[in-house]
């Protein structure tokens, strides 16, 4: 049954995508501009949000109309988590071939098969608990993704229970840099090439401390062998962008820390490049993370 989210978009139920051990919902958006062998973007909402509200706020379906990308929206059930958070910190939901990650993997396989997706152009993004679950998916199924974007999220396996999660969200403790690297490498048998990583965070985020963004970068620096300071720092829409390039000159990690921004997804709703709608946790700051992430992935010029 379609879900109306305004004149620009319409999400459709995805059913029968495997055993669904994580007991998740799923929705898709396949724009009229999509053609065979097109890309797929998996979008994970944050706590207290739904697939519908995140799509409306971030504007992914508007962008999909422009670039011809298919969208997949996994959605948490309140029976799994009372505030609709993905359970990124639970042992059974942070491992390969189990729980919520396996459900999401099965959804992806279904959409790839049904819509003839280019398997080399599958991407994933999420905010808050969806950002932390994006970290989980990139670590546990790295062979599936060409790139990932983590917004206001946390590193993979930075917490293993709810109490640890609350502490890590405030920026305290956490695995060492050496352990962060090992956690990703031990999550699968994959040996690369690894997905590219885009990291976004509010400089005044009091829900998930900005230190988590830097930890995500350090976790993937070692994986991509780009340790040390960024290759360059530039400004995009008035926001500093740090970039790490590999020895072939390819951009493999980017990081945006937006000064003065709280907890949420950065949007720019107005103007020719505007996308989405301002709402709780959808923050108007003059830069569209959706559009810039899509540029990093090569989905738009």
TrEMBL record:
<keyword id="KW-0378">Hydrolase</keyword>
<keyword id="KW-0732">Signal</keyword>
<dbReference type="Pfam" id="PF10503">
    <property type="entry name" value="Esterase_PHB"/>
</dbReference>
<dbReference type="InterPro" id="IPR050955">
    <property type="entry name" value="Plant_Biomass_Hydrol_Est"/>
</dbReference>
<dbReference type="InterPro" id="IPR010126">
    <property type="entry name" value="Esterase_phb"/>
</dbReference>
<protein>
    <submittedName>
        <fullName>LpqC, poly</fullName>
    </submittedName>
</protein>
<dbReference type="InterPro" id="IPR029058">
    <property type="entry name" value="AB_hydrolase_fold"/>
</dbReference>
